[in-house]
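Help! Submission page says 'invalid entity' but I think these are all valid:
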Amino acid sequence: MPLTARLTPRQIIWSKALLWAICLAPLLRLVVLGLNGGLGANPIEFITRSTGTWTLVGLLATLAVTPLRNLSGLNWLIRFRRLLGLFAFFYACLHFTTYLWLDQFFDPSSIARDIIKRPFITVGFAAFILLIPLAATSRQHMMKKLGRNWQRLHRLVYVIAGLGIVHYWWLVKKDISQPLLYACVLAVLLVMRLPRLQHSLLARARDAAPRSCKPGCRE
Amino acid sequence: MRIIGQDDIPASEITPREVYLKRRQFMAGIAALAVSPAFAAAAPPVRGARLAGVKPGRFSTREAQTPYESVTTYNNFYEFGTGKFDPAENAHTLKTRPWTVSVEGEIKRPRLYDIDELLKLAPLEERVYRLRCVEGWSMVIPWVGFPLAELIRRVEPSGNARFVEFHTLHDPAQMPFQRSSVLDWPYVEGLRIDEANHPLTLLAVGLYGEVLPRQNGAPVRLVVPWKYGFKSAKSIVKIRFVEKPPLTAWMRAAPNEYGFFSNVNPKVDHPRWSQAKERRIGEFFKRDTLMFNGYADQVAHLYRGLDLRKFF
């Protein structure tokens, strides 16, 4: 299938189905491993790490949509952004539930102490709380209702992604290679949003794919 | 020979070769995903040779022992990678024979011990100890070895020998992750001479009655059960008696987080996480961490008058 400026409704349905399958694979993997005793000696740690990792991956994938669209001129990419964002939130919920239930077993005093005293828990918790309004306003009618404020609100995702990486960074004992990798990806995705760079990217995309944008359309 | 019916299929019905190949690729891809390592549980570990003449030793706990599989697949041994499963996967490159341990420094009888000689230095005992990792998990492991004091007695330390330094092998060809700079290699650990001489302190050469697996620090490692796990240096090639406290690998890496003593202490938190509780591997609920990992009766006197918050 060549990459075209427009997708047929059928193509959109298939693409979304594929994306669902990809996004559910990490959860499926945990279930399969759990049933086979493949989560290792410390299953709770395994689940916590895995759901945390996929939250970060989901956030970065969501943030990659706009730059990719600008680079390629494929406007339909934007149609998958909400799904990616909601999957990031889904894994964040699993991650947080794992912590509350499996790790702390709903011990309120221990959780409160952790959130106040442990900086890495504090920032992780803040990131999770900040994600909630974004997930709650993800639907089309909320977008219309909030107007310009919707975009203002959803700019919080930059802060959330940053907090998520700090959360990971402060957790590791010494080997920061993984959090560093995520930080680099986030940095690239943010730099691509700088107005001047974005402007030239958009111009290039227009030249490369003139059919993608009819006169008067907005990018 | 002409095969009857071969031409019955109209050309339009024949799947183009590329599409056909792509479909195969796709099916192969799905099949590969289903059996890929990401979805598969690790194979059970290969067991080591049995050690002969092992007698039950002192100080053993009667608590439930952590299964062999967990003890040998969930390890911190940064020489083979920083992930918990890395050592079990990567340690096969370590050659444990020939192996020598140089015992040197402020002693009357410095000597290069061959590992097989060291194994016969003193009767082997089984010691079932609790192990508490600084990360907040713990195990119960039946070690095989002999008290380090047996070795110390034989090499006759001088009056200047106030500390003992332990060096792990430094050979990136055998320990691939030593090519990274995550720690300053070689891994160095240290004990005060009275800690090294304590009857709990073990030179371990096995676990579960068998030769020590590579990922657990073969062929010879230290076991200091009242200190966090990282104090117990693995795959030791040098034991050096010195006058000044050694600068250990973790003190060099993060001096505000890891002190020289690193005694298990539920009241002194790691700067980034609590040490009050621990998850015993195999258990669901966390349990309270005990002072000196439950060995206070044996070792508390070593630290009398010492501010354990300052000397963590």
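Support: the input was valid. A stray whitespace character was the problem, and the output above is from the cleaned input. The first strand of chain B starts at residue 55 and ends at 56.
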